[in-house]
Design brief:
Elements (H helix, E strand, L loop, with lengths): L2 E10 L10 E10 L4 E2 L4 H4 L1 H7 L1 E6 L6 E2 L1 E2 L5 H7 L5 E2 L12 E2 L6 H15 L11 H10 L6 H12 L1 H17 L18 H7 L3 H12 L8 H17 L27 H8 L12 E5 L3 H6 L5 E7 L7 E2 L4 E7 L2 E4 L17 E4 L3 H13 L1 H9 L16 E5 L2 H14 L13 E2 L1 H4 E10 L5 E3 L2 E8 L8 E10 L2 E2 L14 E2 L3 E5 L27 H4 L1 E7 L12 E10 L21 H23 L2 H12 L17 H21 L7 H6 L10 H28 L13 H20 L14 H8 L8 H4 L10 E2 L10 E4 L11 E5 L12 E7 L5 H6 L12 H12 L9 E3 L7 E3 L3 E5 L11 H6 L9 E5 L16 E5 L12 H4 L3 E3 L10 E7 L4 E5 L2 E6 L4 E9 L9 H4 L16 H15 L10 E8 L8 E9 L6 E9 L7 E12 L8 E13 L6 E5 L10 H4 L2 E5 L1 E3 L6 E8 ...
Parallel strand pairs: 1-11, 8-22, 12-16, 28-40, 36-38, 45-46
Antiparallel strand pairs: 1-2, 2-9, 3-7, 4-5, 4-10, 6-9, 10-12, 12-13, 14-15, 15-23, 17-18, 17-21, 17-25, 19-20, 19-24, 25-26, 27-29, 29-36, 30-31, 32-33, 34-35, 34-39, 37-38, 39-40, 41-42, 42-45, 42-47, 43-44, 43-48, 48-49, 50-51, 51-57, 51-61, 52-55, 52-59, 53-58, 54-55, 56-57, 59-60, 61-62, ...
Helix pairs in contact: 4-13, 4-19, 6-14, 8-14, 9-10, 10-13, 18-24, 20-22, 23-31
């Protein structure tokens, strides 16, 4: 049957006679039933307040034998009980859970914030200004060694990483090797790869490593619950992993579905239906309601003697006796152990409590600055990502190991042994028995530990200097009995003090086997009450509007509304220090009294003993921190971090100790820059000779051409000297006003300044045993003694002495999140390729072009903050606690600005909470090509504030002075700019403007004014600040990268957690004697870097690009030098070398196009044709800093910090591959497209092959690299060559010469070695070459005449020409046909044994289209020989060829007899005659008649017989006649005057007069030259210089008399007859 049991627990307070209450009895009902029922079945409980009122209470104690009567002070409320516990209240059996035996899960929350801070400190010490890398980070290496144990690909990843370190060198070596193979100069016989070995990237390796995450989890699971203190990295990994495991909670996971279920929604949790016991337990959360319900009964001992007798009491108990007839089973009252001292009447406690408070000074309690959950989860994710980050970095991606942002929302207090302590307490409670009350039956003994229900957190701050409760509140309690009477008020605006639950155990409901979860954090504070909600509405769900109060009435049956007690709460503010204490809360909601009314009075707080105790406690804390750091990761990586940092001696020299004198600081900076410049100069060797300069070129880029290498070496050497000059220039610019807050902000100077900061970081780190500063240790011991004495609490004197402090050392509340970079918003429509962070102006567009704006502007706004962040910076303190309505309204208006955005048409008014102002110039723009269907309007956004922008939409504010529409970050003082690409020649010329890069936002918070960056074109890079406008000019074709970040005020650094934890925060820049001079210098450097926005951990930066785009490079590339460095034998390739002047900032690629025209003689075509050829020889990227490019065998983009990078040089592959080995004259034209094509419509960018992009061409001769093919000789025939001219001394004379030679017919094709291929005639060059390899000539044996002096040297060139060539310095003018076209040169005959030399005479062949053959005419100069035999040795000859490839194999012509040379002169000595004179060499076929000794006859007549017309003044006489007669036996020279009658054809010339020309002049016996002459009558023939008449001419004929067979009859007798043959015939017009 239902049974009502009641348990009364005594809670002692005081024995003071003046106290209204001496103790409280806490009532516990145990309603027992076999089945579920209602409260109506338990009459004593149903009418509990009446039952309580009708019964009696008495105090039992071991100090007196009889019970002591007790007076009830509190008044129960019958109506309240019925409303809260109506008769229909459900009752189940009294719960007896087995909690201590279940599984409990927790994680070391107290270590996670320290881990997170440690990781940040290690990263920022190692990399104070740049985000840390991955693989080279000494911090990351510790973790990769552990994580790599679970990765099968980790070893390969390390190999790839190691290769990555030398990847640039390896790539260069591979490219060089490939180029060497192409050029045929590689060592050995490597050949070409026939199979490409597959290469895998680091990302692929990691992706293929399946199961690595599961193996990592398994590894870390094994590290949980294990002492990993010997391995700090594993300890951090395991602790972070424990956080993840704590929140994984697999029991509440839902099964994985591959595809989501359509229409599925997350079910709302089932509302619980608490029974009587649960409802009573819930009500204990509101202590003020316990008294009206009779669940806590305040009691007083009226008898003074009885109170005095309790001085000897060791325990007390309260017994309740119901009125007669009440069926109630009384439980034996538990005995509360007590200690009495004077008026003090306290329950005995274990050492877990000190005077009713938690000893927070013990090592088991840790105050946390950061959110441990966020720290652990983010740390777990970050640390486990190191493998992925390493793979990404190895892959060449931009990656950083910088840890995630730290998060804090207040303070937390963790108990390191909370799980064990709570389990022990719960188990003791479960083991405790409560027998029914009977004579001789004693209840269990209880201590204070058993009476504690929870704790209250109290805070002291150094602004108010007082302690504040975080639980004081006002409550309204109503209950609805559901009997139709409506809600019943239980409490109305009643004071109450809440508390924190002691256990905090929780688990996922639904399964009794689910484990319990218990967090180490026992208390936390985020700036508001811990027992009342923040003011505001509660969001229920998307379908319901926010409600002022939560809907909890249906759950508990009681509706409790709470609000913080006005004026009771401290203010959580950055930079303010706070101390904490935790006081116990007993079952009735009472804790240590705040007002001291006890006697004896507390001793003075700051006694010497208390100060000594405080000193010892602070020293102990410092020792704990020291031991932790010495055994932590900071110590483990210390040596590696220091080794990676530069020192001032490494070129990061620091200035002298700075003082407050600005000029002294400037002088220090100038001195540092000067010293740095001197170091660079000292490290740069001087080079004097070309050979020394050439040796300065790295071996991989040494061409072997001394001239070219010397030019490159001179550039490399001058680059280092130029660096020193730049530093000296910067030193000269340093002066007062420049260095506040920082100097040296552009390019190389910025990099040097960053190195200084890193060196400063090392200086501080080397001098400190721990790298973490803990501000809480800075308190003065006497001040801490005063604080630890807690004079406002009624605690025993030993507590005030501070042996075990119950308060924490004050620590500042700090901001751990960095200040974001400034926000950017466009002034106007973005042009092609522009982005918010990419400002572009353009040159080269026509007027009116849409992208032709002369400026590009961005508003630069402070980063946005929340109202809470601003409040935490004390920005709303003027209204908090104020009674001024005006102040409250003003601050409220400011607070409402939190909701403002840059998309609002109207911005909130900062002075009127109901007002707003129109934002001028605001509009939405869309990028070209964006989907218009997704576009929204500003009105759409105003109607629904979370409306997202459509595709490609962005906002513009076209106004000069944009007003900030939101609350700015209170710590953002201005903007900081670092022009880290602005190196030489772009040093900023105005140091006072942008070398002091910190530009403050105008105005005061919250009315900070945005700045505006205006980019425009100009001749130089410069900047000028005017009001809010920062005008930056960039030269055409240039772009500058700018790091933009928020700047800080130096006084605000004290608000930042990472700064206050940094060593630089502890050293006074003025020097206080506690640090060395170097450390003071280092601290000053780091302070300035932090204020200037250089630190990624305080003010991370965003990248801006300032671009002055041009559609084509500023200047076309120029081939300063170009030459063929190598033409490998037999290969169709050529290596070019040279230097290209290129404008790297505006040129994207260097393109060198080759063009040439060449002859192609394809035998399948009618004849040879000239074709035009083109090729792209160079097509390689140009890096942005390139000024000169070296044309060489490989492409190589240098590192900007190496020798080539510092010199502004790039290397470009210039290997041309032809289809053959031919010679060509190639024209090389450099060009290059713009680097800024993305910023122009395609139609506005010149085509890559446009002449507009081309520089001046240069033409090179590319020699043939293979021997020509042998010449195929078809025939060799005599050659007649005619020349006509005047006689110099005879104006009425005309000379006509017939010269001799041979014509060589050649078979197609020609040009086997390319253009310029000649036919060489080979002449012996001395020695005794074989006759079948050289040309030969000789006299006809049947002719008596001059001898051939040297049969191996045919007369191919006249001596006069050779002399003229020698006198001209070797020049050769091919001014006559059938002559060599080049000066004779000597070449070896490689196909002939002994390789003799031969003189080579080159002749240019001509093509005969009718015969389809090539021919070469070879002139033979006039000599004394008649009818010589000639056989020429010929070869194809390519004068433009590499060594050994000029000549083809030798070919021999057939023997030929060239005709004799004859020179005929015709003049008019008088109007009546024409004189004809012929000169030439002769030979004799005979000198006497056959057999009779007489002179030979001609035509049957004696040779001496002359006709009458031969006897004149020209007739020879004497010896001349004899010779003339003798010559007539061999040859006869005649001349005839002819006329052409009118109308006659060319075949009808009529002879007017004829005569034989007599030989009148004879040469010596060696030259055999003869002159024939004679006159012809020419009466009637017009007088004039011969050569022009169309009717008169002279015919000259020479007939040679040959012995031959009779052509008309057989030669039966073997006799010969004389047969004439014409050997010379010519006509000369008169």
């Amino acid at each position: 049957m239902p049974t009502t049991r009641v348990l009364m627990t005594a809670l002692p307070h005081t024995l003071s006679a003046a106290a209204p209450v001496h103790l409280t009895a806490y009532v516990t009902h145990k309603l027992e039933t076999a089945t579920d029922t209602t409260l109506a079945k338990f009459p004593p409980a149903r009418h509990w307040t009446a039952t309580l009122r009708d019964g009696t209470l008495e105090l039992l104690t071991d100090a007196v034998p009889d019970p002591i009567p007790l007076t009830v002070v509190s008044v129960p409320d019958d109506a309240a009980w019925v409303a809260v516990f109506p008769p229909k209240t459900r009752v189940t059996g009294y719960p007896a859970p087995d909690v201590s035996g279940a599984q409990w899960n927790s994680y070391p929350a107290h270590r996670l914030p320290d881990h997170a801070i440690d990781l940040h400190l290690m990263s920022l010490v190692a990399n104070p200004t740049t985000r840390p890398p991955v693989l080279t980070s000494p911090v990351v290496k510790s973790f990769l060694g552990i994580l790599g144990q679970t990765s099968r690909s980790y070893g390969q990843l390390l190999e790839l990483a190691a290769q990555h370190e030398g990847r640039r060198a390896q790539l260069l070596a591979r490219r060089s090797s490939e180029a060497a193979s192409t050029l045929g100069i590689s060592k050995g016989r490597e050949g070409y790869q026939t199979r490409i070995e597959p290469t895998r990237s680091a990302i692929e390796l990691l992706l293929d490593d399946e199961g690595v995450d599961e193996r990592t989890t398994k590894l870390l699971d094994g590290a949980l619950g294990v002492d990993n203190s010997g391995n700090p990295a594993l300890q951090m990994l395991a602790d972070a992993h424990a956080t993840r495991r704590y929140y994984d909670r697999p029991e509440e996971q839902t099964p994985y579905r591959k595809h989501p279920k359509n229409g599925a929604t997350l079910p709302r949790p089932t509302k619980p239906s608490p029974d009587f016991h649960q409802r009573a337990a819930h009500l204990a959360d509101t202590p003020a309601v316990l008294r009206p319900l009779g669940l806590a009964v305040d009691l007083r001992i009226e008898d003074a003697d009885a109170r005095a007798a309790l001085a000897k009491a060791r325990w007390v108990a309260v017994r309740f006796t119901p009125a007669a007839g009440v069926k109630l089973t009384r439980v034996a009252p538990p005995r509360t152990r007590v200690v009495v001292s004077g008026d003090r009447f306290d329950a005995v406690s274990s050492d877990a409590w000190v005077g009713g408070a938690v000893p927070l000074g013990d090592d088991g309690y840790v105050v946390l600055d950061l959110d441990p959950d966020a720290s652990g989860l983010k740390l777990d994710q970050h640390l486990r990502s190191y493998l992925q980050l390493a793979a990404s970095e190895t892959n060449g991606d931009t990656t950083t190991s910088a840890p995630g942002t730290l998060r804090t929302s207040g303070f937390a207090i963790a108990r390191t042994d909370r799980v064990d302590a709570t389990r022990e307490r719960v188990q003791r409670s479960e083991d405790m028995t409560s027998p029914d009350d009977a004579p001789g039956v004693a209840g269990p003994l209880l201590t204070y530990d058993d009476l504690v229900r929870g704790m209250r957190l109290e805070v002291w701050d150094d602004r108010s200097g007082t302690w504040h409760s975080l639980h004081e509140r006002r409550v309204d309690v109503t209950a609805d009995p559901h009997d139709g009477t409506g809600p019943h008020p239980v409490l109305t605006d009643a004071p109450d003090v809440g508390y924190l639950q002691l256990s905090g155990l929780n688990r996922v409901p639904g399964n009794p086997a689910n484990p319990y979860y218990l967090h180490e954090v026992v208390a936390g504070w985020d700036g508001w009450s811990l027992s009342a909600p923040r003011p505001g509405r509660v969001i229920v769900d998307e379908q319901h509007p926010p409600t002022p109060t939560p809907e909890d009435a249906e759950v508990s049956g009681v509706h409790v509304t709470t609000r913080a007690q006005p004026g009771s709460l401290p203010r959580l503010r950055w930079g303010t220090s706070y101390s904490f204490r935790l006081v116990g809360v007993d079952l009735a909601g009472d804790s240590v009294p705040r007002v001291t009314t006890l006697s004896p009075a507390p001793a003075p707080a700051a006694s010497p003993a208390a100060v000594a105790a405080a000193t010892a406690h602070l020293a102990h804390l410092a020792d704990v921190y020291r031991r932790r750091d010495e055994n932590g990761l900071l110590a483990a990586v210390r040596a590696d971090v220091l080794a990676a940092l530069p020192t001032f001696d490494d070129g990061a020299d620091g200035p002298p100790a700075p003082g407050r004198d600005e000029s002294a600081t400037a002088a220090a900076d100038a001195a540092w820059l000067t010293r740095a410049a001197q170091r660079v100069s000292d490290a740069t060797p001087a080079a004097a000779t070309r050979e020394q300069l050439a040796a300065a070129v790295p071996k991989a880029f040494r061409t072997g051409d001394v001239t070219l290498d010397a030019a490159v070496g001179a550039r490399l050497t001058s680059a280092a000297l130029r660096s020193a000059t730049l530093l000296r220039t910067a030193a000269a610019k340093s002066g007062p006003g420049v260095t506040e807050p920082v100097t040296v902000l552009a390019g190389e100077q910025a990099a040097a300044a960053f190195r200084r900061v890193a060196a400063a970081s090392r200086t501080l780190a080397e001098g400190a045993s721990s790298w973490r500063v803990r501000p809480q240790l800075a308190i003065d011991p006497a001040a801490f003694a005063d604080l630890a004495a807690v004079p406002d609490l009624a605690v025993p004197g030993d507590v005030r002495a501070g042996a075990r402090p119950i308060v924490t050392a004050p620590r500042p509340y700090l901001r751990w999140t960095p200040v974001p970079p400034p926000a950017l918003v466009a002034r106007d429509t973005l042009g092609t390729g522009e982005q918010l962070s990419r400002l572009v102006v353009r040159t080269g567009l026509p007027n009116g072009h849409p992208d032709g704006a002369k400026t590009s502007e961005r508003h630069v706004l402070p980063p946005k903050a929340t109202q809470l962040e601003a409040e935490t910076d004390a920005r709303f303190d003027a209204a908090i606690g104020s009674t001024s309505a005006a102040a409250q309204k003003k601050q409220y208006a400011i607070a409402l600005a939190e909701r403002g955005t840059l998309l609002d048409k109207r911005r909130p008014s900062l002075t009127n909470a109901n007002g707003s102002h129109q934002q001028p110039g605001i509009a939405l723009r869309s990028r070209p090509g964006a989907n218009p269907d997704t576009a929204v309007t500003l009105d759409d956004i105003a109607a629904q504030r979370d409306t997202p922008l459509g595709e490609g939409q962005y906002v513009v504010h076209d106004t000069d002075l944009l007003t900030l529409p939101y609350l700015p970050d209170p710590h953002a003082a201005g903007i900081a700019l670092v022009f880290y690409d602005a190196g030489d020649p772009h040093l900023l010329p105005e140091p006072r403007v942008l070398q002091a890069v910190v530009l403050p936002f105008p105005g005061a918070w919250p009315q900070l004014g945005p700045l505006r960056i205006v980019l425009t074109g100009g001749p130089t890079l410069s900047a000028r600040l005017s009001g809010r406008r920062l005008r930056i000019t960039v030269p055409p074709g240039e772009q500058v990268r700018v790091a933009i970040s928020s700047s800080l005020r130096s006084q605000d650094l004290a608000d930042f957690g990472l700064w206050r934890s940094h060593l630089a925060s502890t050293i006074d820049p003025d020097g206080d004697g506690q640090a060395s001079e170097d450390e003071v210098i280092a601290a000053a450097i780091l302070l300035r870097a932090a204020v200037a926005g250089w630190t990624w951990w305080l003010t991370p930066s965003a990248d801006l690009r300032l671009v002055h785009a041009v559609p084509k490079p500023v200047r076309a590339p120029e081939l300063v030098d170009l030459r063929v460095l190598l033409r490998p034998p037999g290969l169709p390739v050529a290596l070019l070398g040279g230097i290209v002047d290129v404008h790297g900032p505006s040129t994207d690629r260097l393109v060198v196009r080759a063009s040439w025209r060449e002859w192609v003689d394809d035998v399948a075509t009618p004849g040879p044709v000239q074709v035009d050829r083109t090729d792209v020889v160079v097509n390689s990227p140009v890096w942005g800093g390139e000024e000169l490019g070296l044309l060489w065998m490989v492409d190589h983009t240098p590192n900007p910090t190496d020798a080539f990078g510092a010199a502004g040089m790039g290397v470009h592959r210039a290997i041309q591959t032809f289809t053959d080995t031919h010679h060509r004259d190639v024209t090389y034209t450099p060009s290059g497209p713009t680097r800024y094509a993305e910023f122009f419509p395609a139609a506005d960018v010149p085509d890559p092959e446009s002449p507009a992009l081309a520089g001046a061409p240069r033409t090179l001769t590319v020699a043939s690299s293979a021997r020509p093919a042998g010449a195929e000789i078809v025939d060799t025939v005599p050659l007649l060559r005619w020349e006509t001219g005047t006689e110099p001394d005879q104006p009425f004379a005309l000379r006509r010469v017939r010269r001799s030679g041979v014509r060589i017919w050649l078979r197609r094709p020609w040009f086997s070695s390319g253009d310029g291929e000649l036919l060489a005639v080979l002449i012996a060059a001395g020695g005794n070459p074989p006759s079948d390899a050289i040309s030969l000539w000789g006299r006809d044996p049947i002719v008596q005449g001059a001898q051939v002096a040297d049969g191996t040297r045919p007369p191919l060139v006249e001596p006069a020409h050779l002399l003229a060539a020698a006198l001209s310095g070797g020049g050769w003018v091919p001014d006559r046909t059938a002559r060599p076209v080049a000066l004779p040169s000597t070449y070896p005959l490689v196909d002939v044994a002994g390789t003799p030399n031969a003189q080579v005479y080159g002749y240019r062949p001509e093509y005969h289209p009718d015969r389809g053959q090539w021919y070469v005419d070879v002139a033979l100069d006039d000599g004394p020989q008649l009818w010589p035999f000639v056989r020429l040795a010929v070869a194809r000859f390519q004068p433009d060829s590499i060594a050994g490839c000029a000549l083809s194999p030798v070919g021999l012509t057939s023997w030929a007899q060239p005709l004799p040379t004859r020179t005929t002169t015709v003049n008019r000595p008088n109007p009546r005659a024409v004189r004809v004179t012929v000169t030439g060499a002769v030979g004799f076929l005979r000198t006497r008649g056959r057999g009779d000794g007489r002179l030979a006859t001609v035509g049957g007549q004696p040779g001496a017989t002359r006709s009458s017309d031969e006897i004149d003044a020209d007739a020879p006489v004497g010896q001349a006649q004899v010779l003339d007669d003798l010559l007539r036996l061999t040859r006869v020279m005649t001349a005839s005057l002819q006329t052409l009658d009118a109308g006659a054809s060319d075949l009808q010339w009529r002879t007017v007069a004829t005569r034989r020309l007599a030989a009148v002049g004879f040469g010596t016996e060696f030259d055999f030259r003869v002159t024939w002459t004679g006159e012809l009558p020419a009466v009637g023939v017009p007088v004039g210089t011969p050569g022009a008449s169309q009717r008169w001419r002279v015919l000259v004929e020479e007939v040679e008399l040959m012995d031959a067979d009779d052509p008309d009859q057989p030669n039966l007798q073997g006799a010969t007859t004389t047969t004439p043959r014409t050997v010379y015939l010519d006509t000369i017009a008169l």
